[in-house]
Amino acid sequence: MVPKPLIKRSSSVNPDPQQKTQYNFSLWNIWVATTLLKILLYPAYHSTDFDVHRNWLSITSLLPVSDWYLENTNQWTLDYPPFFAYFEWFIGLFVPHVVVDDGCLELVDVGRYGHLTVYFQRSSVIVSEIVLFLALQRFINISRSLKEKKRNFVIASSIVLSPGLMIVDHIHFQYNGFLFGILILSITNAKTKNYLWCGFWFAVLLCFKHIFLYIAPAYFVFLFSAYCLNPLTIPKSTKELIGFIRWENLLKLGSVVIAVFVVAFAPFVYYGVLPQLLSRLFPFSRGLTHAYWAPNIWAVYSFMDRVLIQLVSKVPGFGEFVHLVFKLNISSESVNHTSSLTRGLVGDVQFSILPDIKPNHTFLLTVFYQAMSLIPLLVNPSFERFIASMTLCAWASFLFGWHVHEKAIMLVIIPFSFIVAQDRKLLPLFQILSASGYVSLFPLLFGSAEWLFKALFTFVWFVVFSTSFNEVSHFSTTLARRVFIIDRLNSLYIVALIPMCCFVQMLEIQSRNFEILQRLEFVRLMIYSMTCCIGVISSWNGFTWLYFLDDSIWVEKDD
Ligand SMILES: *[C@@H]1O[C@H](CO)[C@@H](O)[C@H](O)[C@H]1NC(C)=O
């Protein structure tokens, strides 16, 4: 048998200009492949969030609108804004009879459901995620050049393949995919300068999930400055100030946003349940940190407190020293109460040595850092600045906010994806953030099979998109000045995450055999939290630096 000669060079021998443009940058293949993968994940572990959403499904299907925010049979009461409730009601229309019989729609204190309910709800996540794919496909479609299209394709595929969505939506169970889809619709409209649509979609998004308030300041300033102000010159008198604002645009934008909120909230105002609704949305009675410490400033703070407790209880004289130097009150009672590092997880963190943190402290810190990032945006409302300040706003809320969930890191990573190709200097920061951010989601899942999946998936995603972003990034001329020692430290940090994850997983597996390790559950979580803190905080530092000091990055670049 004579093997056919391989005609390898045919494409270069016969360059076909059509060939390149024929590649249509479609997300369709990715959708098919990942949907199959997600279906394989149906039997995987799911968290209590699953029962939360199942309960909401039954509340909205069984009860009249007026009772949605009053019902509290199940501890997981409805605490998302109205559009999400309508969304649950809409899904409820499609529950087949067999799934109803399975216990999907029962209004009980703890859900009793079988496989069918799980399959049905998991399918609803996959179907609703189509919004994300369509929004990103549109984002790819609006590119003006082939090069930009390629870049946007990398951005889009990095988001649809995000390990965060895989872990949080398709295993842990939540509906973030389509919510980010709406955010991306809004971002796409900001890019094409359709400001009204941009505002419209963001208002819709806020009525779905209020966590997006984290980035609302960036939207507010961007839309106000880009759409409602005449190009900037400092107004000198009130008369000039009046002419300075484009009142017509302000009116249009205002009515669009208000109309959305009216549609969302009007029924609840009508039934007089608005106060209950709002108290559900903003429960300030929760503690400073979530049960598992999201990798932010307060995690570091709590960690320091724990270390100090150990020192005070183990090192003689240390307590007096701290008391003398820092004037901190240490009650021996509280130290004894909390001195064990193995103390379980408590949502409501009481500090024993460091001063307590109140909600308004966290609020002031967040607002301060957000306001800093908004000033350059107000002066120069370019698309790039807008996305960068959105990223910084989410970051500030994540680092300094009250009761932050680890999942909120997605709110930083996804906007960041849109600007990472803007300059090669941003890539190391993105790498550190995405590596530490996604690794910090690992403790959400239990089970060895899940561990293998999340670790492998995140690793492959990281390698693929590090190289792809590297290929499509703009190179700036000042690249030579990059500090190489910092680059080396970055890589070292990212590589070190691998043994960290393996080590913690080994502890977890061994804890089945050794009782002493079981009591260290909290230490395992703390190792994750502290390691990821380093990444999230240091990449925030670097990003802030570039945001304020390197203006050349935040302008539209020609290809
Ligand atoms: C994107 O463009 C392709 C081909 O040009 C078209 O078929 C598709 O419908 C567009 N998709 C969206 C979401 O705009």
UniProtKB/TrEMBL annotation:
Membership in a protein family: Belongs to the ALG6/ALG8 glucosyltransferase family.
Recorded GO MF terms: dolichyl pyrophosphate Glc1Man9GlcNAc2 alpha-1,3-glucosyltransferase activity
Database matches in InterPro entries: Glyco_trans_ALG6/ALG8
Swiss-Prot/TrEMBL catalytic activity: an alpha-D-Glc-(1->3)-alpha-D-Man-(1->2)-alpha-D-Man-(1->2)-alpha-D-Man-(1->3)-[alpha-D-Man-(1->2)-alpha-D-Man-(1->3)-[alpha-D-Man-(1->2)-alpha-D-Man-(1->6)]-alpha-D-Man-(1->6)]-beta-D-Man-(1->4)-beta-D-GlcNAc-(1->4)-alpha-D-GlcNAc-diphospho-di-trans,poly-cis-dolichol + a di-trans,poly-cis-dolichyl beta-D-glucosyl phosphate = an alpha-D-Glc-(1->3)-alpha-D-Glc-(1->3)-alpha-D-Man-(1->2)-alpha-D-Man-(1->2)-alpha-D-Man-(1->3)-[alpha-D-Man-(1->2)-alpha-D-Man-(1->3)-[alpha-D-Man-(1->2)-alpha-D-Man-(1->6)]-alpha-D-Man-(1->6)]-beta-D-Man-(1->4)-beta-D-GlcNAc-(1->4)-alpha-D-GlcNAc-diphospho-di-trans,poly-cis-dolichol + a di-trans,poly-cis-dolichyl phosphate + H(+)
Protein name: Alpha-1,3-glucosyltransferase
Enzyme Commission identifier(s): 2.4.1.-
Keywords of this entry: Endoplasmic reticulum, Glycosyltransferase, Membrane, Transferase, Transmembrane, Transmembrane helix
This protein's pathway: Protein modification; protein glycosylation
Taxonomic superkingdom: Eukaryota
Bilayer-crossing regions: 27-45, 119-140, 152-173, 200-229, 250-271, 385-405, 426-445, 451-469, 490-507, 527-549
GO biological process: one example: protein N-linked glycosylation
One Pfam family recorded for the sequence: Alg6_Alg8
Membrane topology recorded in Swiss-Prot or TrEMBL: Multi-pass membrane protein
GO cellular component assignments: endoplasmic reticulum membrane
Entry's localization field: Endoplasmic reticulum membrane
